[in-house]
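hey so i finally got around to running the thing on that chain from the lab meeting. sorry it took forever, my laptop kept dying and i had to restart like 3 times. anyway pasting the input first so we r on the same page abt which one it is
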Amino acid sequence: QVSSASALAQKELLISNKFEWCCEILSKKKHPYVFSFQPPWNPDPKDEIESGSSTFFAFGSTVDWENWIIRYPLDANVTIETPQRPTNLKSKAIVGKRTLMVVRVVAKDSSMSTPAGTLSDEWFGTLGKDRVNMKSQFKACSYGKLTFDAVPDRPSVGLKDGVMTVRLNKDVRGNEPYTVQNWVRAELFRRLGSSYLKYDHLAFCMPPGMGLWLAYGYVPGTLTVYNDEWCGRVSAQMHEVGHNLGFDHSGTVRGEYDDTSGMMGYSWRNSDTRMCFNAPKSWSLGWYNDRHAVIDPLKTGWTGNIVGITDYRRSNGWRVLLKIVGADKDIFVSFNRVSSFNMDTKMGRNQVLITKVQAGRDGRSISNQVRQLSINQSFTENGFRGRRLVIKVLSINVKASPPLAKVCISVKSDCSSARPQATPKPTQSPTPAPTTPKPSAFYLNFCSSPLSLSVMGGTHGKNSKGIMFDLFTKDETSVGKAGILVTGFVLRVFQKHKVKGRVWTKSGTHVGYEARKGMWDRNGHFVIQGSANDETQTLLLDSPLYLPPSTVHAIYFEQLGGHRIVPRDLETRGGTGDADISTEHIGIHVGTALRGSILMRDMGFRGKVNYHVCDSLPSSIPSYIPSKVPSVAPSESLVPTANPSTLPTVMPSRSHSPTQFVNPSRNPTNLPTLKQTKIPTNLPTLKPTKIPTKKPIAVPCTNERLFRFVDNGGTRRRSCWGLPLSYCNKWDENGRLMKNHCRNRCGFCNSKWNCADATSFYYHNIQKPWNKCSNLAVSRCNLIDNKGRLVKEFCRKKCSFCG
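ok and heres what got predicted. didnt touch it at all, straight out
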C-alpha cells in the first residue's frame, strides 16, 4: 500500500481530444514507470495542480506493478501537494541544443511499419530525402535557436542515427498503450541501463493494434508516443514535443484543437507540414523576443506595422508579436504570413490573428483564436476593464519588403482616424471598384468567374447526420489542362433547424473509407440555418480544393449532433459510385448518408458546389492576392525572382525562325518538328513527340519499396517480401492488387500483361458488358467497387496504370 505517488503527469491522447491524468512512480532502481488510475481520476477545479510537479495523496491506495494501475478507494480523501514557485520569475526562452532518441517497437504479433533508416530521415533528415522533418522544422521556426540532434550511435545495442529497434517478446494487440510503453522502458533499461535517462527526449514509435489513437505526449515531460505511421508525421512530432515543452492546445470557440494556424491544433496526415506555433506559444518560446511588444491600452494606444515570423530577420525594427495586457485574459496580435517554413499554415492565411489566453499563462493554457482580420476589419472587446477595446487592421501589403500589416489598438477611439499606410508604388492601371472583403474568400487570377453545380430537388431521403459523396472533374477537353478550383458549397438542411458541422475532404473515393476518419483532412466548419423556401447560404472551405482533370475527390459533411441533413434518395436511379448529376466541367457521384453508425447507400448530395474553371496551371501553393500583371507563362524556376517584372514578357512567335542554329536552344520550341533533327537537344522536350518510339518503355521488374499491403482492419501493413505468394492476386483494404506493386515477388514483369486490362474484372462484380474495363468511363478509375477493388488496379490499360 502507498499513500502518495511521486509525480502526477498529464498525458494527451491525440484522437479523443482529451487529457488523461496518470502517475509516475520510481522503481527501486530509480527507473520511472507510468501508472493509470482506477477508477479514472481528475482533479478538482479548485486544486492548484501542475503536471510533473504535484504529488497525489490517497490513504489506502494500492499499486499494481503487473498491470501498471493505482487503485484508490472511492471514499478516499484525495489531497494534492504542489510546490510553491516564485511568482516574480520571468519565463525563460526555450533555446539550446537537445538530444532525442527514437525507439522503433517490434512485438511478437505486430511491428512498427516504418524501417529504422526511414524513421531517422523523418526525424533528423539523415538520408537527405525528407527535407521537411522534425529537426529541420524546429530549426527553421526558431532560426537555429532550438535544435534537436540524434543521440550518439551505440552499435553494440543497435542504436544508429538516433533510432533504436526494441523487440518485445510479448503480444501487444488489445493492450493499452501505456502498458506497452512501460514494457519498452523496461527493455531499454535492460539493454542500456540508466544511461538512456540522460537523453532530453524519447519518442516511442508503437506498432499498430492498440486502438484508434494517433499520438500522445507528457505535459511537461520528455516522452512522446506515436501510433505506427504517425511517428513520421512532422505535425504530430512537433505537436507532441510541444507538450513536452509545456504547451497546451491551440483552439477556437469551436474546439480546443481548431486553431490550425499552428502546430498545437490538429495534426495532419501528410508527412511534410511547414508550420510553426501560434502567437501565445511563440511568445513563450522566446525565439522572437526582441520583436515583442507589451501593450496596456488603458495607458497608451498603439499603431504600427507587424510582420510575420518568416520575416523576423528582416523586420526593419517592426514588431512580430503584440501582447495586450490589463484584463483577465491576455490578447495576442500576430500577422500569419504565408511563406517559407510557414507555408502550410491552414487558418487565417495572410491575415491578422487575434488570440486570447488566460492572463500570464501564454503557451501553458489552451489558447482561443477569436478572429482572423483582413484589411479594414476590426475586433471589438466590450468588457476590457469597463472599456471598449478596438483592434483594427488598417492595411495589409504582402508585396512590401518585408510583407507587413498595419494595426491600430485603442480604447479611446474606433481607429477610424488612424492614418492608413501608403502603397509603396502606384499600380500601372487603376483597380476596379472594391468588393466587400470576406475573411475566408479565395480569389485567384488564373481562374474564371464563379460557377456552380446545383441540385436541390428530388425525393427526400431520411434525415441523416452526414453525407459523403465524390466529386469528379471531366477530361482536358472540357476543363482544360489546369482543372477546377472548388471554393465552397451550399448545403440543404431539414426545415428551419440550425445545424453545426464540419467539412472533411480526401483524395479519391469515399467508398471504403466511411469509418476511417484518419484518412480524411478537415477543411472547414459550418453553422447554417435551414429554411422552408430553400434560401441558400454559402459555406467556404478553409483551403479551396484544386482538382486536376479526370480526378475524383471525396467530400464529407459531418453534423455535430442530431439528424438534420437531408440527402436525396437515388435508389431507383443508381447505386453509390454511379454518376448522379454534372455540368460540362464537374460532376457528382451517388453517395452515402450516415445515420449514427448506419451507412445509408444510394443517397445523393442536396445543395450546390461553387467552383471556378482555371485557364492556367496554378503554383503548388497559390497566392491569396493576385499579381498586378499576370505573367504569360510560368517561369522555369520554382523559386520566384527577387524583383519580378511588372510587365509580361514578349509572346513567343508561333512560326519557326528562318535561320537554322547549330547549337540547340536551352528551351524547347513551342511546336515539335515533324522530322528528327540531326543534332539532339541537351534537354528533353516538355511535350511528347508526334511520332512515338518504336518500342515501348519497359516497366522495371522491381518491388515498390514503400508499398505496404494493408489488411486486418487496417492494423497490419506488410511489405512485398512479407507477403506469401498466394496473395499475388489478392487486393488489400485500399483496393490495391499485390502483383501490381510487387512485380518481382509475383513474377508479374511481362508488359503484355501488366499493362493490360483484367478480362475477368466486372465493376461491382455485375457481369454485364457495360461493366467491363473497356466500357467503363475513365472517371471510375479511382473508384473502389462493392468488392473493395480499386478499378485502375484491374483496368490497367483503360486507366493508363501499368503497376
